[in-house]
From TrEMBL:
Organism of provenance: Electrophorus electricus (Electric eel)
GO cellular component: cytosol; mitochondrial matrix
Highest taxon, organism lineage: Eukaryota
Claim: Lipid metabolism is one of the keywords in the record: yes
Protein name: Acyl-coenzyme A thioesterase 11
Domain START: 399-558
Occurrences of domain HotDog ACOT-type (ranges): 37-149, 213-324
Catalytic activity: tetradecanoyl-CoA + H2O = tetradecanoate + CoA + H(+); hexadecanoyl-CoA + H2O = hexadecanoate + CoA + H(+); dodecanoyl-CoA + H2O = dodecanoate + CoA + H(+); butanoyl-CoA + H2O = butanoate + CoA + H(+)
Gene3D superfamilies: 3.30.530.20, Hotdog Thioesterase (3.10.129.10)
Subcellular location: Cytoplasm; Mitochondrion matrix
């Protein structure tokens, strides 16, 4: 057994076998080679009464400190220098951890970008007496490498080795995109009038509502050396713990009980804090829902006479559990005028966004039902899901070559009762050009006879487009099929990454199914384009079939025809003829 040293992409191309994890061992065996991720850092802590709350459960603040510390050490292992927490994505806590149980935290760098890295963190708990283990949560944090000098650090690239690492590496680019858009998305959505809902419309009885003023908390902390790293920067985990502390007080004041923290929204450390800073932490309940409440917290720092710097804002969802662990109903609140009413409405918007994000992002592959209607508030998550599903499909390893003709190969994959196909060939067209031409779905009728007509309905942004596509009837004399497709395109994030054009059906409230057509559904399809050389690209078209799509390809898959080869041939002809033609879609990005 030797250690894996191959370049990841060549390993991926050679069809690496799925990894075999040996229990909780750090060693992964893949392709008969044994491997340990060099950035992996583990921490185990026994939960003592001093780490726990009144319910004898580990306080989330303490857990956040341990998670941040483990992740920071992993980031520093890759960076070789000191790192600071830039952001933490949504964390959903699946269970609480009791005194006497052991918390196991595992962190590893998924990808290094320029000066920042994504670190994946997994938290589980272990009961030493019953020998049982449970998953508590998993999170993604971004750390930025900082040098003592002013200039920005350029990190060495991370080379993913195992199949799982390659997937995380690829998805980290998608998550980063979503993270960097987050602040703008929230701003846009909070100003979106469709979410506006006034408390008075609820017809609430004033007597039964709790004034939010009752829940307001303001607390100060002095940052001392134990709260900071050797470069005197305050640990992000420490700030999160202080924020969680005031949020818990605000939540307790509303329910007069011990609340349980369920979810923390994605948040971002806007600016650094150092030893000697006074941190002012403010929290208030923004809104209550049937069984949960949103508490908002903001952290500001100052030293001496200087004005306060806004360091962080976070939104946390709490529940109150009864003796059986079931969430109890919470009283409605009466927000204060102005800021209170605004935050009340913003909490409603955040609830919808949080649900979309949790549901759409956490769904595996194509499990997101097509009935999730596309809208402005979930478009980033549907786009993420679209690209994620295609990358997952492309990363499957058990493809079998079904037929080959004129250098066009048709592969199939049968897994979990789904049938997928992949058509692949090389074309004498630069990858960037092929990407641009293929992303413009309106041109597809020029080379694909199955695309009778294609109309662009919405250009969402530079990367996402929604089309109405007509395809011929699958049965003689039957109705023409139509599809509403979301096309999400991504140029490479780094050299070695492919160009991606992902396609999936979406439900568009403005375009319901009509009598004239049979509405078809496409679960997951699209192109992955690799640069083979400056002038040659390898194009793979993937499709996860369902009854709406299968009839178009079934005779090819059964080996009864080779129309796939004909279609691919016309596709390459089209690309060759249009090597220099300007596309409808802007190519400024490329
Ligand atoms: N989430 C994730 N990464 C983010 C981010 C966010 N919300 N905002 C910026 N970044 C990343 C950028 O993508 C960039 O990554 P790259 O170099 O790999 O491309 C990196 O941070 C630096 O971005 P840049 O635009 O050069 O700097 P900035 O002025 O936006 O500063 C921080 C970003 C995070 C360095 C800055 O806000 C900061 O110092 N925050 C406090 C960090 C800290 O001290 N944390 C501990 C607790 S206070
Ligand atoms: P905004 O004040 O615009 O709502 P911030 O980012 O400043 O946004 O604050 C985030 C959250 O922190 C608010 O939604 C609120 O719940 C809480 N918060 C902010 N300021 C105060 C305050 N003065 N007192 C109590 N809680 C506050």
């Amino acid at each position: 057994i030797s250690f894996l040293t191959d370049h990841p992409l060549s390993a991926m191309a050679s069809g690496i076998k799925p990894q075999v994890e040996q229990g909780d061992s750090d060693l992964v065996v893949e392709d008969d080679k044994m491997y340990r991720n060099p950035t992996e850092v583990k921490m185990s802590q026994i939960v003592l009464p001093c780490h726990a709350n009144h319910r004898k459960e580990l306080s989330v603040g303490q857990l956040l400190k341990w998670m941040d510390c483990t992740a920071c050490l992993s980031a520093e292992r890759h960076a070789g220098c000191s790192c600071v927490t830039a952001s933490m994505d949504d964390i959903h806590f699946e269970r609480t951890i009791g005194v006497g149980q052991v918390v196991n935290i595992k962190a590893k760098v998924n990808r290094a970008f320029n000066s920042s890295m994504e670190v994946g963190i997994e938290v589980s708990c272990e009961d030493l007496y019953s020998n049982q283990q449970w998953k508590v949560c998993h999170a993604f944090a971004t750390f930025v490498a900082r040098s003592t000098r002013a200039e920005k650090i350029c990190l060495k690239p991370l080379v993913p080795c195992t199949h799982k690492e390659q997937l995380e590496y690829s998805m980290a680019a998608e998550r980063r995109r979503m993270r960097l858009l987050h602040i703008d998305i929230m701003k846009d959505l909070l100003s979106n009038k469709t979410f506006q809902w006034s408390p008075s419309e609820e017809g609430q009885n004033e007597q039964l509502t709790v004034p939010t003023e009752k829940t307001r908390v303001e607390s100060v902390e002095l940052v001392l050396p134990p709260h900071a790293n050797h470069q005197v920067n305050t640990f992000g985990g420490q700030i999160m713990a202080w924020m969680e502390n005031v949020a818990t007080i605000a939540a307790s004041r509303l329910c007069n009980a011990h609340p349980t923290l369920r979810t923390i929204d994605m948040f971002h450390f806007r600016g650094p804090s150092q030893v000697g800073d006074r941190l002012v932490l403010k929290a208030i309940v923004n809104n209550t829902f049937k069984n949960s409440m949103e508490v908002g917290v903001c952290a500001e720092a100052y030293q001496g006479e200087e004005s306060q710097r806004h360091i962080n804002s976070a939104f946390m969802m709490f529940e109150v559990l009864d003796e059986d662990g079931k969430p109890c109903p919470l009283p409605p609140i009466r927000p204060e005028p102005l800021d209170g009413s605004r935050r009340y409405q913003e909490a409603i918007a955040r609830k919808k966004i949080r649900l979309d994000r949790k549901y759409i992002i956490s769904c595996k592959q194509t499990e997101v039902p097509l009935s999730v209607p596309w809208d402005q508030s979930n478009q980033v998550y549907l786009s993420y899901n679209n690209v994620f599903a295609l990358k997952m499909l492309a990363a499957r390893t058990k493809w079998t070559l079904s037929s080959e003709k004129n250098n066009v190969r048709l592969y199939t994959l049968e897994e979990n009762q789904t049938l997928c196909f992949r058509i692949e060939s090389e074309v004498n067209v630069p990858a960037a050009r092929a990407f641009l031409l293929l992303s413009d779905l309106c041109c597809r009728p020029e080379w694909d006879k199955l695309y009778k007509q294609c109309e662009l309905i919405i250009q969402v942004n530079d990367d996402d487009f929604i089309y109405h596509v007509l395809t011929p009837s699958v049965s003689e004399g039957g109705k023409v099929q139509d599809f509403i497709l979301l096309a999400s395109r991504r140029p490479p994030c780094n050299s070695g990454d492919p160009y991606v054009i992902a396609l999936r059906s979406v439900t568009l409230p403005t375009h319901p199914p009509t009598e004239d057509f049979n509405r078809g559904e496409m679960l997951c399809a699209g192109f992955i384009i690799y640069e083979v050389s400056k002038s040659v690209s390898k194009i793979s078209y993937y499709n996860q079939t369902n009854p709406g799509v299968l009839p178009y390809i079934s005779t090819d898959i059964a080996g009864l025809s080779s129309s796939f080869c004909y279609t691919f041939h016309s596709c390459s002809q089209y690309l060759l003829e249009n090597r220099t033609r300007h596309s409808v879609l802007s190519d400024t990005e490329i």
